[in-house]
Amino acid sequence: MKRLLLYLVIIVILGSCGNSGSGELTGVKNRKKYYQPDPFGMVFIPLGSYTMGVSDQDVPYALLNSPKTVTVQAFYMDQTEITNNEYRQFVYWVRDSIARRMLGEVNATEYLIETNKKTGETYDPPFLNWETKIDWKSDDQGIRDALEPMFLQESERYFRRKEIDTRKLYYEYYFVDLKEAARKDYNAPGDTKDKIKEGGLANRPQGLKDRSVYVRKDVINVYPDTLCWIHDFTYSFNDPMTEKYFWHLAYDHYPVVGVTWKQANAFCIWRTQLYNSGLSRKRGEAIANDFRLPTESEWEWAARGGYHGNPYPWGGPYARNDKGCFLANFKPLRGDYVDDGGAQTVIVAHYTPNDWGLYDMAGNVSEWTSSAFYPSSYSFTWDLNPDYKYNAKDNDPPALKRKVIRGGSWKDVGYYLQVSARSFEYQDSAKSYVGFRCVQTYLGRQKDDNPSRASKIYN
After folding, report:
1. What does each C-alpha distance from 289 to 19, 106, 437 come to in angstroms?
2. Which residue in 186, 99, 228 sits closest to 151, CA to CA?
């Protein structure tokens, strides 16, 4: 018995000696240090508190934006609205991905990656091979036949040139419905196991094993509605804008319009994939930090530029500077559109930025936010990162498809330039006066923190 106790003591001693840190809580070792890079074309918006909503008279007495003190996390935001040329990169990527799938049926080794050369792992479905260039004017009959369905059949007959059929530029993407996954709709007392199982998503039983039910799939055409210039203003000659605005070189750096809320979200998801794939090639790892549309509270905090209580992004109470020049592109006076420097949209960053370096937070085009529009949302949202979301389905009534737009546009009067002014459009509508910009949440401490304050963690 004494020998057995001796053996047990020795085992305990040896086991304790095997633990690193002498039994102290030190955390997992060999974790890499993480420093979030500044995304290209974005500026840092610090966290802070401010009074969200009107700080002066509610001119239309809409009662949509009652003052409320809120706090917003730090994030990055695009300096300007997404331009035609930037959005065109998304359209071209979708076009080329569809072409590679078609060409993969003719020559899989050139256009698809079916196995991992190092490990021999088979990919199902295969990845697209972006190293192989697509020769759109190839003389190879096999390539020509494979790509033929992507072109308009009548364009060559009437215009003597082949044109891509933009109706076929569909992007398939996935996202996790966190709001649905976090629901706590408890089952009614006495519900049987079968009934709970039938409830599935609606009741979210805690024992649900397959979390894929919260992964949503969507397929959307990514090409902007270039006819928005006509259907928005029926009795107006806007044909040149319809024919030229999105694809002509003259408008490359103008804000993209004719993009629905769902298309803007799809762009953000694609941009996240593009960004992470680039980091993966550079560093050997990808970060899980998404680009997304700003919430309504984030947008207003960014638009204020650090000023509290002032109606406009530039801080002053007037829409003109001390020289009498207008500070944004909107509908001034009684409809003298050109008095501010542009009749319709103008090139991005044409006017002076606010104090955080953000351009066109007032005027030019209104901007989509991720928030659903509800007149009383200020009354029930939390005061830390407030947001009201609803993922409307295609068959939902129009009132549930309203999304908040901010900033005012080239066709709006001065009231809508105010940082607190709220309006909405329907998520499946595309307008000639609505664009968007992206944000990315900042992970980590404030940029101006002194690392010596907590060297144990920071160093």
Report:
1. 34, 37, 16
2. 99
Helix, strand, coil distribution of the chain in percent, nearest 5: 30, 15, 55
Nearest to 435 by CA among 417, 397, 408, 454: 408
**DSSP code at position 72:** E
Helix (H) or strand (E) holding 104: helix 84-104
Distance CA 459, CA 450 (A): 11
Cα separation values, 26 from 14, 455, 456, 459, Å: 20, 14, 11, 14
Number of helices (H), then strands (E), belonging to the chain: the values are: 13, 14
Q: Six-digit token pair at 21?
A: 């840190």
**What is d(CA 93, CA 99) in angstroms, rounded to the nearest whole number?**
10
Dihedral through CA 233, CA 239, CA 242, CA 246, nearest 10?
Answer: -120
State residue 364's pLDDT score.
96
The full set of domains in the chain, from first to last, is 42-83+240-459 (3.90.1580.10)
DSSP E strand stretches across 87-169: 112-115, 122-128
**133-140 long-range contacts, CB within 8 A, separation 24+:** 134/96, 134/99, 134/100, 134/103
How far apart (Å, rounded) are the C-alpha atoms in residues 261 and 412?
Answer: 20
Q: What pTM did the predictor assign?
A: 0.86
| Confidence bin at 424 (pLDDT 50/70/90) | very high
The one-letter code for the residue type at 164 is I
Find, among 261, 343, 354, 374, the residue nearest to 307 by Cα.
Answer: 354
Residue 451's pLDDT band, with cuts at 50, 70 and 90, is very low
The C-alpha angle with vertex 408 and arms to 393 and 263, in degrees rounded to 5, equals 35
Evaluate whether 45 touches 74 at the Cβ level (below 8 Å). yes
